[in-house]
Each structure stands twice: as C-alpha cells, then as structure tokens.
Amino acid sequence: MIKGLLASLSLVPLAIVALLITLFIAESWPAWEKYGLSLITTADWDPVRESYGILPAIVGTLVISALAVTIAAFLAISFVAVSYEFLPPRAAVVLGTTMDLVAAVPTVVFGLWGLFVLAPIMQAAQEILWRDLGWLSYNGVGPFAVEPRGGTTVLTAALLLAIMITPFAASVIREGYAAVPKEVVEAIHSITSRRWEIVRLKLAYIRQYVFSGLVLALGRAFGETVAVAMVVGGNFVNVIRALTEPGVNVSALIALQFPNAHAYVYMVPTLFAAALLLAVIGFAINATAVYFLLRR
Amino acid sequence: MIQVLFYAGALLAGLLLSALTAALLGDPALGDLHLSYVLYVVTVAAVALGAAGPRVLKNSLSIAAAVAGVLGGAALVYIFLAQVLYVGTAMAVKHGGLAFLWNIPPTPADETGGIGPALLGTLYMTAIGAFFGFLIGFPAGIYLGEFRRELAAKVARIGVNVLVEFPTITIGLLVYALFSLLGMRAFSGYAGALALTIIMIPYVALFTAAAYASIAPAVREAAYAVTGSLYKTLFIVMRKVVARAVLVAFLLGTAKIAGETAPLLFTAFGNDYYTSEIFGVDLGEPTGALTLLIYYMAQTPYTVQNEVAWGAAAVLLWIILAVFAVARLLQRSA
C-alpha cells in the first residue's frame, strides 16, 4: 500500500514532463501549421505582418552557450586542478564553498550586476577588441567585426553566463577528481612528476565526469533566461554577425516577447514552439550527460 | 578533447581579460603601441606554448594559466558578491532602512520606495512551493532511493532527471498554459507557487534518493528486522539516519526556488501594491516577488527604481546567504 503510494508519487515528475510536452505541442500547433519548418530556419520578427522565424534566437543560443561553456571549461578545470594539486586543503575548502555559493546565487542578481557593472566595462573592452581585432572577418562576419553600440551584447552575456555555469561543471568534475583510485594515482606518479602532466592524466582518467559536467553546464547555458535577457541587448530580427552585436537566445526571446504576444494571433503559438524547442534540447542534453556517466 | 577545450577557453578568457584590463586602465598607449597589443601577444604566446611548446614550458605555462584562471574567476566572483551586498545594502539604507522592507515600490515620480509586497509575495510563494514540493519530492525520493532496482523506479528516475534540468522558463509556460486551459486566471500567486512546487519536487527527490541509497545495508536490514513494517522502517528509523542530508536538500531547494525569476514571469506576474487587508498579499491576484521586482526595476530608465532594484538584490542575497550558511553548518557537523 505504502509502496504503491510512494511509487505513484515518484512518477509525478514524469507525468509533468509528459504533460509539458503535450501542452506545448498543442499550443504551438497553429504556428507549425502556418509556417512549417521555416519557423526555425528563417530570420524574421515582424508581428505586424504576423511573420516569425526564430533562427536568430537559435543561432544566438548556440553561440552564447558555446562561448560560455568553453570559458567555463577552462575555469572549472583550473579550479579543480588548483584546489586539489596546488592549494593547502583549508584554502581549497574556502574556494569550494565559494563555488557552491555562486551556484546558489539567484540568476537575476547576476543579471543586475551584469547590466550595471559588467556591461559598461565590457563596452569599453569591446571597443578595444573591435579596434584591434575587427579585421578578423569574412564577408562582414567575424568575432569582433561589428562596432559595438553599447555594452549589452552577445559577448557580455557569454562572459556572465560562463561565471554562472562554472560551479555546475566544477562540482561534477570535482567529484570525479576526488574519486580517482589510489592505485591509478600511484601509477600516474610513477610515470611523471610534472604537476600539470599529473593533472592531465587524472583528467583523462575521469573524462566521463568532465564531459557530463560540461554537458550539464551546457544545459544551464541553454536554458538561462533572465540574466541573459538583461545583458544580451535583444535583437530578434537578424542573425548575429559578430559577438560585439546585441543578440538574443531562445529563452530570453520568450521572456522578452511573451508579455505583448497576446496582441497578435500567431505570436503565442510561435513562442510555445520556441519553448518546445527548449524542452526538446533540454531532453537531449540530459540524455547525453547520462550516457557519458553510464559509460564508465 | 579536454585539452583542446581547456586551451581554447584559456585563449578566450585571456583575450577578454586583456581587453578588460586595457579598458580599465583607460587604454594606455606608448606611441603607436597600445597596451592591449602587448597583452594579446602575451596571452597568445603563453597559451600556444602551454598547449604545444617544449615539455618544461608546457608544464609551467599550463599551471600559470590555471592559476590565472582561478585568480581571475575568484576576483570577479568576490567583486560581484561584495558589490551587490555593499551597494545594495547601502541603497536599502538610503531608502528608509528597515522601512525599506515594508514600503511599496516607487513609481518613477516617487523619491523613495521599498520592497514590501514583493518580499511578502516571495515569502508566501516560496513557503507554499517548498512545502508542497517537499511533500511530493520527499516520498518520491524515498522510492527512487530505496527501491532503485525496480523497473518503475528506473523509469521514474528518468522523469526526475529530465525535469530537474529543464529550463525553468518552460515550467512557467506550462503552468500558464495549464491555467489558461482550465479557464483559470494564470496571473496569480497560486500559479507562481505551483510553478515553484514543480521546480522543487525533482530537486528534493534527487537528494533524498541519494541519501536513502547511501544507507549501509546492515543498518537497512536491522531497521526492517526491528520494525517489521515498511512505513516505520522508511519514515521513522531510516528517516533519522538521513535526516540531516534531507534537511540540507530542503534548505538548498528552498533557496533555489526563492531565487527563481523565469517561472514567475508569466504566472505570479508581479505587483507593486498590497492586495489584502489581512495577509498583505492576496495570492489570488497577480503577486509580486523580489526577483521579478529586480528584473523589472533594473531595466527602467529611472534612478529611483534602479536603486530599489539594488536594495532588493541585497535583501534577496542576504536571505540566500543565511539559508546557505545554515545548510553548510548542518553539513559540516554531520
């Protein structure tokens, strides 16, 4: 009896996921019917003509997340290596606690800081990057090819996101790093005594942990809404040509456009289609992370 | 692959840091030579030699990159925390000190204001979300942990794993769609509380499952032998074994949902005024939340609203810090 009750309660999350997918498919159906696949393959945001294509948001999501995860990978691996190999245990505990605290800070607080503190500094920094490295472009497309008009750009959002998602990657990598068997550690020490080579070999041994941690961080980056919405600038119309331009990601698109969506016929279904896309991507990312963890 | 990511990240972070340093120093130049050029060259050279140089350089430069990464990251994080707490608290004091906690938020025309309805809304919705989330998540977690080898538990676990990683804005849209479908008003405190409940459930369930799964087999068998009843074993004897871990999960989960913004955007919606004589906030109406207040007031062009957003951020961060500290102490003394 009790067991049955427990079992049925444990199926609640699965039921919620099923309900979510069903509702999103139903709510977004008019948009898929009207636009077909062009909904996700074209760049357009013209509510007056009821013409929508969310390609800019999709590209923005991919670019912002890729940048953020790359920087976060560097920061997380550095953190784990430094705190386990170079720091005294007490200092490592302080650093680790800070990491856990950062994971608990509400994202909107990051957004606030990003908007008022990071963005103005980033504007000056991006002007320097554009002046120095703007020539790195092909047909007008390049990392810093567009002159920044303000601090709120894709690059600012990526940097802020990188700081926010580092703890999630670090906690998984840390868990693996601490669990390397003693025999393996001894074997590694018998091969080399250079500290970084030891780190490299240990990381290679726990690569499943590293990848699943990074994939989970990627999941965070894909789904992050308010912090990105506050510093990304909000450009729904064009696919970005440079990191120094304002952009948008899928969840920020929903957050920024949903409040006035009800004035139009097809905007609500379009935004539900975007949400469905997010849910599907979230599902895929999770499956990948679990796959990496189970393979060891 | 890990190495490629590490050095690519180091290069990116280094270039960004170079530009940031140059910008902070006012872009100094020696004739035609900007400081930024020097910093790029140093970054690129260090990363290139660290990735593919002679063995000695590879070792020392990679360590240098990692140490620089930790120092840079930690510096950013500590500056961030200190700035939000210091500037935010100063703003809260400026706008009435303790009265900041119960005054209503300012309109652009006001000189000062507070966060009263938003604070109350956050407390109510978080309390409801944490209560129901725990009520469902805890037993669900027991099943996932204690009967983890059964097929049903494995299937249920997939749902929990997926739900905990879902972008939270989709949860807000789900509740919105659900309420609209049932013909109810989606912009209400109850909708917000439901969204927070849905976010809390898988979080508590995962931690509870891990705690129950980690109970030593001998203790488990002893518990079953002594009580002879499933209910007493799971909820009384073994609950005491894992109480601390579950409490920590409850506290961290509560802190997490108290800081959620995205799921409240289209459910609680936000409200700058008190809506009830008795409770202060009527959850049947659109309800304010600290996070929503920060989100909206940060993006207005009015200084007074921006200042209140900073004050609200400090209050929220202090609350989160307090909960985090309690959870940490519980973990430490375990």
Provide a descriptive summary of the structure in words.
Chain A is mainly α. Chain A has a single domain (54-266), classed as MetI-like fold (Orthogonal Bundle), CATH 1.10.3720. Chain A contains 13 helices and 2 strands. Chain A has a two-stranded antiparallel sheet. In chain A, helix 4 (55-86) runs antiparallel to helix 5. The longest helix of chain A has 32 residues, at 55-86. The model of chain A has no long low-confidence stretch (mean pLDDT 91). Chain B is mainly α and 334 residues long. Chain B contains 11 helices and 2 strands, in the order αββαααααααααα. A two-stranded antiparallel sheet of chain B has the order 1-2. In chain B, helix 1 (2-24) packs antiparallel against helix 2, helix 3 (55-94) packs across helix 11 and helix 6 (168-181) crosses helix 7. Chain B is globular, with a radius of gyration of 25 Å. The two termini of chain B are 38 Å apart. Chains A and B meet through helix 1, helix 2, helix 4, helix 5 and helix 6 of A and helix 1, helix 2, helix 3, helix 4 and helix 5 of B.
